[in-house]
Amino acid sequence: MPPTSAGGALAQALFRPRAVALVGVSDDAGRTAGRPLHFLRKHGFAGPIYPINPNRESVQGERAYKSLAETPGPVDHAYILVNTPLVEAAVADCAAAGVRAATILASGFAEAGPEGLALQRRLLEIARGSGLRLVGPNSLGVVDTHTPLALTANAAFAAERLLAGRLAVLSQSGSQIGTFVSRGAPRGIGFSKLVSVGNEADLSVGEIGAALTDDPETDAFLLFLETIREREHFIRFAALANAAGKPIIAYRLGLSDVGRELAVSHTGAMVGSDAAVDAFLRRLGILRVDHLETVLEAPALAIGRKPPETARRSVGVITTTGGGAAMVADRLGLRSVEVTPPSAETYRRLKAAKAPALPGRMIDMTLAGARPDLMLAALDILIEAPEFDLVLAVVGSSAQFHGELAVKPIIDRAHSRKPIAVFLVPHAEVSLRALADSGVAGFRTPEACADAIAAYFGWHRAPPAEPISDAALDTAITALSATSGALLDERQSLALFEALGISAAPCEVVDPERLPPLPFAFPVVAKVLSADITHKTDAGGVALGIGSREELSARSRAMLASVRAKHPDASISGVLVQPMERGLGEVLLGYRSDPQVGPVVTVGMGGTLAEIYRDFSVRLAPVSVAEAEEMLGEVRGFATLRGYRGAPAGDLTALARAVAQLSQLAALPGSPVLEAEINPLIVKTTSVVAVDGVVRLAR
Amino acid sequence: MPPTSAGGALAQALFRPRAVALVGVSDDAGRTAGRPLHFLRKHGFAGPIYPINPNRESVQGERAYKSLAETPGPVDHAYILVNTPLVEAAVADCAAAGVRAATILASGFAEAGPEGLALQRRLLEIARGSGLRLVGPNSLGVVDTHTPLALTANAAFAAERLLAGRLAVLSQSGSQIGTFVSRGAPRGIGFSKLVSVGNEADLSVGEIGAALTDDPETDAFLLFLETIREREHFIRFAALANAAGKPIIAYRLGLSDVGRELAVSHTGAMVGSDAAVDAFLRRLGILRVDHLETVLEAPALAIGRKPPETARRSVGVITTTGGGAAMVADRLGLRSVEVTPPSAETYRRLKAAKAPALPGRMIDMTLAGARPDLMLAALDILIEAPEFDLVLAVVGSSAQFHGELAVKPIIDRAHSRKPIAVFLVPHAEVSLRALADSGVAGFRTPEACADAIAAYFGWHRAPPAEPISDAALDTAITALSATSGALLDERQSLALFEALGISAAPCEVVDPERLPPLPFAFPVVAKVLSADITHKTDAGGVALGIGSREELSARSRAMLASVRAKHPDASISGVLVQPMERGLGEVLLGYRSDPQVGPVVTVGMGGTLAEIYRDFSVRLAPVSVAEAEEMLGEVRGFATLRGYRGAPAGDLTALARAVAQLSQLAALPGSPVLEAEINPLIVKTTSVVAVDGVVRLAR
Asked: I need a labelling partner for A63 at 20 to 30 A (CA). Which of A1, A48, B12, B90 fits?
């Protein structure tokens, strides 16, 4: 079968193999290494299946082959089920036999320490030489419900029937493919593909996903992530999926410190900060959900749609039960999504349609009871009302036994231009299935419903960052070329920031024994200038509020003496003098090349409390000014810069511009900057000014 | 039937009436006002049912009576189903006929505005005169599954069978009683009683709950709350339930501003701050959950148990799937519950039992597969291990089709002395039912599981506050008696705080024209002294860092001139002079008599950022020093006072003492203080000192 597209050859070998081999399959269909044969037969794989077992004539009643070399026809996909020490030889056999893809069950590789990692690398070398591609190791298998191919050892596939569907699951946790199947089935939610990617030694989520973006049986991708591996493949996957109009929804471990730690220990992967990974997923247009069930329920909100066009997050609510809708609204409030009251015009139209809406924040149809004609009329009005970006319909007890009353009208509007989320207050499996069958996003809990709506509004197509100007680029390169060593000192750092267009406080580097005339007035601040001393204040290297030349001279001398005593080995370039800058607040602006997701820019309030509250916003760098403004809106502490309680407001436009400018470090050729921090950036009423900073280079 | 206990007569009339009347019942069993007759018959009420309808000979095929006066026997409980304008007359008829309890369906009372409120008050007057007790108005009914009595208009009771159980539901949202029934049924979770309390014009959650605390068919109470009405009854209910060993679990609307607003508009109730209500529920030993499903799933964690004895929140995790357990652990991390690694001794015991636990934070049994003998052995070791306060068992795919492997061993330990929470990763209804039947807390989602565990650890039996000493009491009363007016000025406020035992900065009130000698050294701070000026800084009424007598005199004069110009009507008592106090941080300490829940004490960092981050801890006042210390642990910003990054640590013992001392305002006879605030309380390394404050009295 010739490849039908870019991903075609790989997708065909993995999901539509002409023949399958089961290397080391057990005779006991109940054991992990015996299940794949049982499941392949049970769910009806149509092609040849070759059990490979050198010790047996037959396996589970079928003829077994001594080795891959003996099989009567070519094998596209082998599942290697042998124990860890035998895997290397099995991979070599696959490579020699011309197998195109091998999935490896065994664990004990990269996740188990240095020896396992070395073993994993050897598998990769063997495969690379022959064109063999690997899934795993530590993979519970590869499933295609349309082929059908249940090449998996996951016990959940003992289910009588495998529900076909249009969602592709890629999971770094093998057990979760079973969770998806098991939890989807009673909801009528089926899958097109399910892949346990394991350690991603060769094929990663990104590469497998990319190969599926043109799969005609897949409408959306669901990811269970513990980490991001193979970033470039991941980015390509997201770009192809976006281009194909197929949303990606991700559930990710690592909200809390212990979650991140467990994700690491579980997979041997490196896990970055939650905020950086979030920024990465967001930039790629991936919807991130926080609740397990949301990952099954949210796709219907996004399939066939584009990300919201504005930053407004306004929901119109129609309900047959005030208390039920309030549960969702309460949680939406926690996620900065607004339940918007209908406009006067919308009220007028509801009244004209005889929909008995009480005045209030929600369209409460309790008084009408659940009447399909009124429900439909009111829904149409909400769908058309310009004040709402999404419609939330909450259906009370009628959903359980009388779906025709209030659920059916929603299904009739399944393909409206505005997304509709539906929370069913009672246990109502039949109605949930009917919604799923019609492609309407139905939710079983108020928490998952609010989570999905928040994810929808966080769905993002980032505007491209303004390209850095050639002049700024040249100046920055010049500023960097004038330095040596990995750490720039404060003056060099400020010069780099200025090259990017960020105003910095004027600096004079002086020798206290021979003070030159200063180009700015007193009071001034004096700081020891040394790339070797990162905590100047702790070293006694900062003197504030100096009022005169005499004081400057005396305090600078004292300062240098103190610093030299504490850091006898530090190279000191002199004393840096700046005017005392005052403003409305101090901001920390940072740039970092994250090993997992790439360059990110961070902005937050300066100071200890902001650090304790983790109140900052992170984006992949570079960002546009518009995106930087969005970032500022996410930092709660910036309320103090917006004219809090009658205080004057700071220049947040200049602040956003500075964020975008710093983020341009990502655009420098060769990515020379590993880390840069402006701390503080002083925000004034009509400008911002960088007062101190540090830069670390990849040298 | 004679009353069998304190709550007996009321409970009997409500839940085990000798006869029921349905006033205004509709002939159409599908309409809201027709359902109660249908449901009573369907679910088998054994006593006489008297349909009352002046316009019909028969209703739904049964004989109807013209009025209550015509019924052949006495009626204990009437359900008034007539429209709002007819309710008053119906209540009067009930009162005249000697009915003991009437439940009222109609809405349009207190929740609908002043006219409705007046109408509701009239109902109450009519009832009070006769001994008739009311449920509602706006009540969907009263259900007892054991009697059985399905006196309800909630459509969910159309279910074929009403599952009896041992949980009593009291709900301020009528539709939610149906939600509980509908969602409990597939889980095997049934109820003893379900009451829609409506507007609580007469009988409140507290009074009905209190009447059920000795119900032999009830093990625990589930509350759906929008507000707290009838505080004293609520407190009595909680005390009786605690004494009876019957936990109360509450789900409450109002996490977010919009949730609070909707709770108000929905019920006409007043809703206090989330933190104050939380403090109230906590003090009463009520478990508060955040997720809807948790309210059904959490009771099994608490029934038959007492609140945790220590503040430690340590969970031991055993799992057959690392990824599944990580989902719960990740969310526990967000709720400050620690997933604790097993001790060396526990490892030794696991090894001796041949339980194949990998080293790590959780006991991961993946390698063993799901083996009942090993599961049981490992569970026993965790239950006995002193490092864990609760055991979380996470069961993977075997839970769906092979409950005997890993779920059954947990059921065998249902009555162990340590609480066990069980999260089932797949869809596994049979196993969930088996857990519910055995009284084990089983969870369907990782989020609800973590929510319940956090609620369990937040379950609290408050140590009694140390009683205020007679001397402190006398001094405080004397301090108050020396004042007049509702607002105390700064000096009077500080005197009151000192009377409670809180150190205050020394004060001198001076006339700038005739400066006396000061009993403390310069530098000092001068502040205008006036109860009429609450924002002294804004009025130009504060001068900091005054270095000499001359400066004090000059700046005080200037200050008074500025304040008099801005506040010509303010009564000014002079200039208050204090030494400049410096410390490690500034704390805000507040006391307030909350109209809904009573006196509360609040502590948090001072300053704008702490206010923006809402970083404070609230408790019902008074609190003991131990409880105050617990409060300090909840304020994230206090990290800055605990020796943050090598800085010296503040005297948090003195701070906790000050919190407890201020909270004693609640113990003053006659509760004269409405509000008191110390802002700032300066925290030093070996003491705390109140520098400014304000007190508002009920005068």
From this structure: A1
